[in-house]
Amino acid sequence: MGLIMSLIIGGVAGWLAGNIMKGNGFGVIGNVIVGIVGALVGSFIFTLLGLHAYGILGSLIMATVGAVILLWVVAMIKK
Fold first, then answer.
1. Count of structural domains within the chain
2. Is pTM beyond 0.85 here?
3. pLDDT, tens digit, for every residue of 7-45?
4. Which residue segment(s) compose the domain that 23 sits in?
C-alpha cells in the first residue's frame, strides 16, 4: 500500500507543481516522476531547514514544494 500511496502523492504533487510553474501538467507518468523526484528534493530541503512533514497532507506539501523547486532549477538551467 505504501508504494501505491507514494505514486498517488507523487502524481498529485507533480500535477500541482506543473500547474504552479508552467500552467499545465506533464501527463500522468511525467507528473509521477516530477512528484517523486520533487519529494526527494523536498525531503532534503525540509531536513536542512529542520522541518518535518507528517501524514499524507504533509507528504503532499513537501513533495509539491520540492517539485516546484526542481522545476524552477530546471527552468533556470534551460535559460
1. 1
2. yes
3. 899 999 999 998 888 766 677 888 889 999 999 999 999
4. 2-78
